[in-house]
Amino acid sequence: MRIRKKKQLEMILENVPSHPNPKVELEQYSTPSSIAADLIWNAYGLGDIKDLSVLDLGCGTGIFAIGSWIMGSAYSLGIDIDQESIDLGQKTIIDLIGLNQLSDIDESNINFMLGDVNQYYSLSYLLNDNLNQSNPQYEKLMEYYNGHPDKSTMKFGTLFQNPPFGSQERGMRHADRKFMEFAMNSADVIYSFHMKNTEEFVIDFYNDLGGDVSHKFVYKFPIPKIYDFHKRESQDVKVVVLRVENFK
Predict the structure, then answer these.
(1) DSSP H helical segments within 71-164, as ranges?
(2) Checking DSSP bridges between strand 75-80 and strand 110-114, what pairing results, if any?
(3) 198: exposed, middle or buried (C-beta count within 10 Å: 0-12, 13-18, 19+)?
(4) pLDDT value at position 211?
(5) What's the CA gap between 238 and 219, in Å, rounded?
């Protein structure tokens, strides 16, 4: 299947459901298909998708894993702490293939794994944990890496992340910093969502970690009324997505 227009990609990604049971302590907000499609389309144009390994960190139901897979990644992996969400992401792949929308794409090139970013230094550390080696997706990932020379470092080509911002009282303070550190130890190029008003701090943080911001994408991110403390049906929050080149 060849995607010729961004709108075509967006229409397919509209089939990716939101978190089935959003947890406020994890600050779970699903990325809209319009934003995901735009970012993936731009990443593809910059050479960050086709024939590369792509990691969707804190993937939720896996919209970036699925989108990059559709756009021709060599292998896409979604990692999240929420089993319910990744189970739904895996089901979505089966549903899309069943609808014949993606019947000509190799299903073995995309997988999901349970993992808590806060417990590990990098993807390599997470995958080398004995607990994760019992995961059925672990063998599929190793099959992919067995044919690649970079398997010792376990770095992916590109990483997408929309981390918790640590802005809620019940959320995890500075959770986004842990995601940034993990990302820098796990991928060559990073697309990272952040509140627009924290942009200067985030750029400095990435620079200190050895990264360089090459591109910025600004979006109005809709926050729906999904938690008890929300007063409005929907509220737009200005976010920036930074494309970070990792020179470590």
Answers:
(1) 83-98, 123-127, 136-145
(2) parallel
(3) middle
(4) 97
(5) 6
